[in-house]
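Before relying on records like the one below, remember that each one covers exactly one chain. Contacts with other chains, cofactors or solvent are not represented anywhere in the record.
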Amino acid sequence: MTKTVYQQHGQHAVVLLHAYTSTPDDFTGLARELTKQGYTIYAPTLSGHGTDDPADIFKYDIEDWLEDGREALNFIRSEGYERISIFGLSLGGIVTTALAMENDDLASFGTFSSPVMINDHDDISGQFKQWFKAGKVELGYSQQEAEQEAAQAMDKLKQVMQHLNEFKADLIPAYKNYVGNVFVGQGAQDQLIDPEHAQQFVDELQQATVTFKWYEDGGHVITIGAVGRKLRDDVKEFLNNLG
């Protein structure tokens, strides 16, 4: 299982933060393409992710993942990098946005399919339950046992989502004052979060220089497949245009 990706190729470092229940594998293609372009890549695994037991994810919350992001920035700075961009997919995008609000020296930041606003139409419960159950089966649980474990996990998931909304409620007022370069990418066919998050976010970024990319055929994970190839080109262009 991938833990941390660190590939040194140039003076501009790009930090990548993955999605909830996922790993840096979300960014395999993007990382490969950016290193070819001469960017240094650092992609850590968020706490509670990438382990054998899916229940490990409940040992941590948004404050822990934000601290993971801070540690990633501190590490890359300690390596001597001063020009830093940071991107995140889904949950990673929330962390990325929070980091940008407290670090005004970033070259840029970006979100991919990220629920950075508060929206009643988001629903990751089905996908999460399937992921949780599959993880328990891999640990040796019977189908029935895994189903029971997954059902119990749903109450914990609701608490995580509630806490996340409280975190975002405190974060959102800062958007309108952010001055910097921002990339926002969203798939129109996203079944886990409301795609309108992206436009709402762009509208809130009143003083930022925003590049907004809408992928008509994109689902939630827009970093892979045909849409992922288009995203890679768009991110490369965005970064290259920073000068």
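Helices lie at 28-36, 62-78, 91-102, 125-138, 143-171, 196-204, 225-240.
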